[in-house]
Amino acid sequence: MFSKSEKISVELLSLTYGTFVARLLKENDNAEEVNLQLHKIGSNIGNRLIDEFLSKSRKTACKDFREIADVIAKYGFKMYLGVTAEVAKWNEDDTQFSIYIENNPLSEFVMLPIHLQQTLWYSNLLCGVIKGALEKINVMVECEFKQDTLRGHDSTEIIVKLVEIVEDRYEDDEM
Amino acid sequence: MHFAIFIINSHGSLVYDNTALSDKIKIKSNDALRLAGTFHTMHSISSQITPESAEEEKFIAGTHLRDGIQTIESDSFKLHCYQVLTGIKFLLVSDVSTPETEMHHMLAEVYQIYGDFVSKNPFYEQDMPIRMTKFDKAIEKLFMPSYY
Question: Biological process (GO) annotations (chain B) (predicted)?
Answer without folding.
Answer: endoplasmic reticulum to Golgi vesicle-mediated transport
